[in-house]
Amino acid sequence: MRYAETDQMGVVYHANYLIWMEVVRVEFCTALGFRYRDMERDDKIFLVVVEANCRYLRPARFDDEVVVHARVKSANTRVVQFEYEMRLAESDELLLTGWTKHLCVGADMKAARLPDRYRAMFGLKSSA
Amino acid sequence: MRYAETDQMGVVYHANYLIWMEVVRVEFCTALGFRYRDMERDDKIFLVVVEANCRYLRPARFDDEVVVHARVKSANTRVVQFEYEMRLAESDELLLTGWTKHLCVGADMKAARLPDRYRAMFGLKSSA
Amino acid sequence: MRYAETDQMGVVYHANYLIWMEVVRVEFCTALGFRYRDMERDDKIFLVVVEANCRYLRPARFDDEVVVHARVKSANTRVVQFEYEMRLAESDELLLTGWTKHLCVGADMKAARLPDRYRAMFGLKSSA
Amino acid sequence: MRYAETDQMGVVYHANYLIWMEVVRVEFCTALGFRYRDMERDDKIFLVVVEANCRYLRPARFDDEVVVHARVKSANTRVVQFEYEMRLAESDELLLTGWTKHLCVGADMKAARLPDRYRAMFGLKSSA
């Protein structure tokens, strides 16, 4: 964790974990086979966060290495939900569990259908 | 909302609302009759966030004035839960509902009892 | 200053002062008679930061009230430079001096001329 | 760069580069042979930022890979100055040049001498 992410209690400020979740979602998409930024740029599809939940079990500290696991918990043509677990790399202690719910919207910020190829990658059957 | 708080979708980045909740908790404590920083400094009592939840209903944008309402939803000698509502000042549209749960800890980061005078202010009966 | 703005040294993290400068620039524009966001939205004119300098003299702490003074140091049709001074409200102690240099660009991120009415407000003679 | 680091102009918000400089300083110390956090924790020595300067040449965007070069520009027993260059990994285009000046302080936030072993690593002769 970065120094900038700590607060005066000497631990990582709690809002920063939402940023880490986002970093991991982007990596998750890359692992699935697409770049999140290309989905935004080329398909004008955005997965906006409509709900987020974090349970903070232990604090992380500056320069701790944190391992973040993410998975798609559920998904349909309009809503994708991710789940997260963060652990200290050194000890495997669980730091946080959380989830985020995302609505698929177009450039006009209105609800849109998730295009087939992304749905397939998120583990959905294609709309055949 | 600040320019720094926007992201490339042109709206306020979702993690920033947790920061706004914290800003409002501090003001809430002041309205109750104490400064949050004095509780930390003088009593070595910290209200660490152990869970947080946000439902994002509409996005805020740069330079929008946002009104945040906070209240104590529940409290006991160890845990305090706050609830929040954020609305656009101009239109009164609801932007966000959320809550945070806080554990009372001492300087050693171990669970502690919330001192009587704070409990009274948070709407609890004093431990007489 | 916000809790989120502190770091583990118990003081405000140095990058946050750049954000405060931006907050004050926006207020400065409002005081001059226009909203910064309207300049972006209606005129597609953006004042991008091309250089920034901060001298940190004393640290600010959580919940300190900080007074920020800003002024236009120099301006021409393409570049505007702001200067800042931040002081503790309580003691008037100087915390920071700094400046930012801004290039006027259009929506295409290419250099543009600052429209006359903004130039007049920034203290320049109109291009009559 | 992270999504959280962008602003509504679609580019990385300028204050975030100071955070990247700090991330790189920490890595730089590791490369020199010590962990920055151990210097703080074990020696109670802190390198506080007393001045910072950034020249922004081109904007970075979300998901751009950025390569940051840092070096010690000058150092004595009380002050260390770092220089930075950031480039787009893909094209090698220069995004930013900057520097930060750090004062060596103790836990009391008063000026202190940089211990010999760190001075040696920062390229100074040991005080023999």
Q: Please tally the helical runs of chain A, counting DSSP H or I stretches of 4 or more residues.
A: 3
How far do the termini of chain A sit from each other? Answer: 44 Å
| Subunit arrangement of the protein | homotetramer
Parts with pLDDT < 50 across at least 5 consecutive residues of chain A = none
Number of strands of chain A: 4
Give the ordered list of helices and strands of chain A.
Answer: HHEEEEH
- CA-based shape of chain A: elongated
Q: Give the spatial strand order of the biggest sheet of chain A.
A: 1-4-3-2
Structural class label of chain A = alpha+beta
For the largest beta-sheet of chain A, the strand count, sense and barrel status come to: 4 strands, antiparallel
Rg for CA atoms of chain A: 16 Å
The percent range for strand residues of chain A is 25-35%
Name the largest protein-protein interface in this structure. Answer: A-B, 20 and 20 residues
Q: What is the helix content of chain A?
A: 10-25%
Task: Write down the overall mean pLDDT of chain A.
Answer: 89
